[in-house]
Amino acid sequence: MTIRNEPSDMTRARILAWTVLLAMTAAIAYGFAGGNFGDNASTIWALPWGKVSLIDLYAGLALFGAWIAVRETSRGKTALWLIALITLGNFAAAVYLLRALFEADDTTKLLLGKDRVG
User: Within 10 A of 92 (CB to CB), how many other CB atoms are there?
Assistant: First the structure.
């Protein structure tokens, strides 16, 4: 399997990450403006598909967190990013991905981190 290092791929990834970040920002603002987190969360958890959705969310965040742990060389930074993932969800994931995309000039550095690649 060959990993391509084309700038256009990195640009597309940055556009996607910005789009997710903006969508999450709008969704969070909508949630705060029109809902009550405590009441809504208990309603969601009461529904079978609400449970599935939350389990799916946290499974994905755990996988993303594992990638962060591979990339980061500092345990402190890793811990802070994991806390951000747990509290902010995919908003934090989008911010981390953007940070990683702007640090990396190729896909190897994107996947492994600039400090782990010579």
Answer: 23
